[in-house]
Specification:
Distance between the termini: 39 Å
Oligomer: single chain
Order of helices and strands: EEHHEEHHEEH
Radius of gyration: 16 Å
Shape: globular
Structural class: alpha/beta
Number of strands: 6
């Protein structure tokens, strides 16, 4: 089996929208803050993380599409090099665009389970680890709609070149994109 797929719960509460100053941290990355793309896909190129990663950009567009029950919360990706080997790491965080959908963390389990079942049918899947993390959150600008968001961290395995690692990343993110674009229909109790 070329993949691992995990699910856990983080207990740290997150307010959404969250701010970001864009100031680089020690790892060279920066937090630019929450940008709501649901119903506003024209904003996608204003998100620096999406402007520099075409795979994450496609994922954000798919998850925020009018036909899905989801909205994106945040994302990040970066290449890692060590001792002549390369890999990619990053995450995509999303939530149900529904007050009732986010209210129960258990609503995310079917997504995790069916994604796992889908991965088990993919031929020639490159080695990858998906780590799903549920996190308590409150959409403070939407009448304090509270519940859980879900971040999926993706880690490709070590590859001999940056080009191979990049291909592994794109393939891994494409699997998640193909899956999340199917999550619908749009709910009646939308947050955005």
């Amino acid at each position: 089996m070329n993949y691992q797929n995990y699910l856990c719960i983080n207990q740290k509460h997150k307010p959404i929208p969250y701010g970001g100053d864009g100031v680089p941290r020690e790892d060279g990355e920066a937090n630019y803050g929450f940008v709501c793309l649901k119903g506003a896909l024209d904003r996608v190129d204003s998100v620096p993380e999406l402007a520099r990663d075409a795979s994450l950009r496609r994922l954000a567009i798919a998850a925020n599409g009018d036909e899905t029950a989801l909205l994106s919360v945040g994302c990040l990706s970066s290449a890692v090099a060590e001792e002549g080997k390369h890999r990619y790491t990053g995450y995509f965080e999303f939530a149900f665009n529904s007050r009732s959908g986010i209210a129960d963390a258990g609503n995310y389990f079917p997504l995790f389970f069916h994604f796992d079942r889908m991965l088990s049918t993919v031929k020639d899947l490159r080695p990858v680890t998906y780590h799903w993390e549920l996190q308590p959150c409150t959409f403070t600008d939407r009448g304090n709609a509270s519940g859980f968001s879900c971040g999926v961290t993706v880690n490709t395995h070590w590859a001999p070149t940056l080009e191979v690692a990049c291909g592994d990343w794109e393939s891994s993110i494409d699997q998640l994109t193909d899956f999340l674009r199917q999550i619908g229909p749009p709910p009646d109790d939308r947050i955005y």
